[in-house]
Design goal:
Helix content is 24%, strand content 28%. With 340 residues, it is an alpha+beta fold. A hairpin with a 6-residue loop joins β18 and β19. The structure holds flavin-adenine dinucleotide (FAD) and uridine-diphosphate-2(N-acetylglucosaminyl) butyric acid.
């Protein structure tokens, strides 16, 4: 039986370093302990927070229930052919350590996703993405426990309904499943994705044919370190808002008013706007309110240097949303999940 710790401080378990207490906290090392933790929550009628690295949550207040910290381990090649390897990874494995493991073993496809904090089990929740690659590009299937029935259910790439920072686990199946493992389909020969302009320009000195996946990973790490604060030093959850997707008509009228608007095509009828640029133009970059700051190097990141309460972070987020709405008529949506 895993150890249930009552009245537990979870400040060190969320990368915004918000001070908050959970009624109960338990770390689970394997699926059996996870089942026991879920049974405890059912018996005690406790609300649940399934926690990985805590790098994409905002704690609005103390958590009046059971926090289950997923610490399961394991990486197994479950199938392979001449071209691909299928790697099954336990939910509690660290994402970046997984990226390093794949590069060390000659399995390719994760290099653009280097240095994203957090756990493997959380990666499908928002279909993590960076530098032109998303989890869905390498995802084969996942196993999850149905919290109500305790049954294991498999989800294919299609049934996860992945989108930009989206999946079925943030929509109709929100908080109904615990992901226990993720299986990735990785290349045995490098197939590099260098379409992201900042990445291409970081590697421009190397002839295209000579670029290795390790060099892509190193370039991604260098770009990230140049603009994103290290949560160990400055508490944050990465991008605080999603980049808004707007209809082409709205984009065109904004572009007339703001010729420098930063945007990317999504499909024939939609454009994605750089939320960091919008927040920056609204004058928020580097501003601080109540010990919560808009990051000076990347206005899309809110930081919590004063380790203040979650409600103060959410208050600043509301003010940023209101300014961007007023100036551009665009409503920003938060990326991290808010608890309780
Ligand atoms: P947590 O914060 O612990 O949880 C996030 C959500 O997932 C919660 O709703 C939680 O309940 C749920 N969850 C966690 N584990 C499970 C599970 N096993 N089963 C079911 N639900 C679960 N994200 C990107 O996409 N791209 C980036 O480039 C990126 N850069 C970042 C940079 C920094 C500096 C930081 C701090 C964050 C960044 N993020 C980025 C966000 C974050 O790293 C990812 O969302 C990551 O997947 C969160 O993992 P986690 O384990 O910390 O999740
Ligand atoms: N910009 C500004 N001012 C700012 C911030 C950005 O003008 O203060 C401009 C930049 O100059 C650039 C554009 O906005 O032209 C986009 O900025 P950047 O390349 O830094 O990327 P982003 O759109 O802000 C997204 C993801 C990141 C991901 C990077 C790389 C979202 C919400 N964020 O950031 O993901 O790492 O692209 O792919 O999609 C995360 O989700 O937590 C995260 C960090």
């Amino acid at each position: 039986m895993p150890l249930f710790l009552p009245h537990f401080n979870i400040q060190k378990f969320n990368t915004l370093a918000v001070p908050a207490v959970a009624n109960y906290f338990v770390s689970v090392q394997n699926d059996e302990e996870l089942r026991e933790a879920l049974a405890f929550a059912r018996t005690e009628k406790l609300p649940l927070l399934i926690l990985g690295g805590g790098s994409n949550i905002v704690l609005r207040a103390d958590f009046p229930g059971l926090v289950i910290h997923i610490k399961t381990r394991g990486l197994d090649v479950v199938a392979e052919n001449d071209e691909y390897v299928w790697l099954k990874v336990a939910a509690g494995e660290n994402w970046h350590q997984l990226v390093e493991y794949t590069l060390d073993n000659g399995y390719y496809g994760l290099e653009n996703l280097s240095l994203i904090p957090g756990s493997v089990g959380a990666a499908p929740i928002q279909n993590i993405g960076a530098y032109g690659v998303e989890l869905k590009d390498v995802f084969a299937e996942l196993a999850a426990l149905d919290i109500q029935s305790g049954l294991t259910v498999m989800f294919t790439n299609e049934s996860c309904q992945f989108g930009y920072r989206e999946s079925i686990f943030k929509q109709t199946l929100k908080d109904l499943y615990v992901i226990t493992s993720v299986t990735l389909k990785l290349n045995k020969t490098p197939a590099l994705n260098l379409q992201y302009p900042a990445l291409r320009s970081a590697l421009k000195e190397i002839p295209a044919g000579d670029i290795s996946p390790e060099q892509v990973s190193a370039a991604v790490i260098a770009i990230r370190q140049s603009k994103l604060p290290d949560p160990q030093q400055v508490p944050n959850v990465g991008s605080f808002f999603k980049n808004p997707v707007v209809p082409v008509g709205q984009f065109e009228s904004l572009k007339l008013r703001f010729p420098h608007l930063v945007s990317y095509p999504v499909d024939d009828s939609h454009m994605k706007l750089a939320a960091g640029w919008l927040i920056d133009q609204a004058g928020w970059r580097g501003k601080e309110v109540d010990g919560v700051r808009v990051h000076p190097d990347q206005a899309l990141v809110l930081t919590n240097p004063g380790k203040r309460e979650g409600k103060l972070i959410l208050q600043l987020a509301d003010r940023v949303i209101a300014s961007v709405e007023e100036l551009f008529g665009v409503t920003l949506e938060m990326e991290p999940r808010v608890y309780p």
